[in-house]
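Q: Given only this backbone (261 positions), what sequence would you predict?
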């Protein structure tokens, strides 16, 4: 391992990304210590998903540095990128399950495809992970379309932890869930991440999720991280952008696009 235990698991330095003339990320600096859970908040269209895609290597940052456990993602391709990605687990917005695969096959996908785990062994692991997210083994034989949204999120979480990843990314993990189910999912996220000792990076607008799953919070606005601190300091950040955002006020320094032409 190239990195030491004190070095951050994930570090972004001066990350820029533009689409044509539109600058979306404008020097993002962010660091997630090992074993910590950092949640990035920010309004719609502020670049949270673009930042996540740059980390995952799904989009290429124009410049800057993104290191995962000391390994540089920016400019890395092919097998070297796959090796970095093998450390990742990911819970996508809307769970993003494969409709044509049974639930257990969805959970086992990364094990069978990515790690070459034997089907029978992968099945056993998948059933164990399903139990860990509160689903009974018989759910493993169903298809995603037969499940409620909350159950699909659980399956997505089981898939995210299937390979016992060192880093887990959560993209709007509670979108589309009622507040009680959202709380259940947040609780499961905390439990499973802690059990793995994993480092977590999440993006969300759900303040309930932030308060439940974050050790630290960072706010992105104007393509930059404009505040970062422990979740306990969120209420007293002294930053007018953060205050406006967390209290959901239309008045403040964040200009709300009302969709007028
Ligand atoms: N592939 C792309 N090509 C061009 N523009 C893009 C592309 N992907 C994202 N953008 C633009 O980048 C900006 C940031 O988008 P992004 O999806 O990262 O926002 P977000 O903060 O995740 O928003 P939300 O919370 O609504 O999901 C938007 O203006 C979007 O239109």
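A: Predicted residues:
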């Amino acid at each position: 391992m190239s990195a030491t235990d004190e070095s951050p698991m994930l570090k972004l330095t001066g990350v820029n990304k533009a689409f044509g003339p539109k600058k979306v990320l404008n020097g993002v600096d962010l660091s997630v210590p090992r074993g910590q859970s950092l949640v990035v908040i920010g309004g719609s269209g502020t670049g949270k998903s673009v930042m996540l895609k740059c980390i995952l290597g799904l989009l290429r940052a124009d410049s800057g540095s993104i290191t995962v456990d000391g390994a540089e993602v920016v400019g890395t391709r092919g097998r070297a990128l796959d090796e970095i990605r093998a450390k990742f687990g990911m819970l996508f917005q809307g769970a993003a399950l494969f409709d044509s695969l049974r639930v257990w096959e969805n959970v086992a996908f990364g094990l069978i495809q990515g790690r070459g785990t034997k089907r029978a062994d992968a099945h056993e692991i998948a059933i164990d992970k399903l139990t860990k997210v509160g689903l009974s083994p018989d759910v493993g034989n169903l298809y995603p379309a037969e499940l409620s949204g909350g159950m699909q999120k659980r399956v997505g979480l089981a898939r995210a932890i299937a390979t016992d990843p060192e880093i887990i990314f959560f993209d709007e993990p509670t979108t589309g869930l009622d507040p009680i189910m959202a709380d259940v999912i947040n609780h499961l996220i905390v439990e499973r991440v802690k059990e793995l000792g994993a480092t977590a990076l999440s993006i969300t607008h759900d303040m309930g999720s932030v308060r439940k799953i974050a050790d630290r919070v960072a706010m992105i606005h104007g393509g930059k991280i404009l505040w970062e601190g422990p979740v306990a300091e969120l209420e007293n950040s002294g930053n007018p952008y953060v205050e406006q955002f967390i209290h959901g006020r239309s008045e403040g320094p964040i200009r709300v696009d009302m969709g007028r032409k």
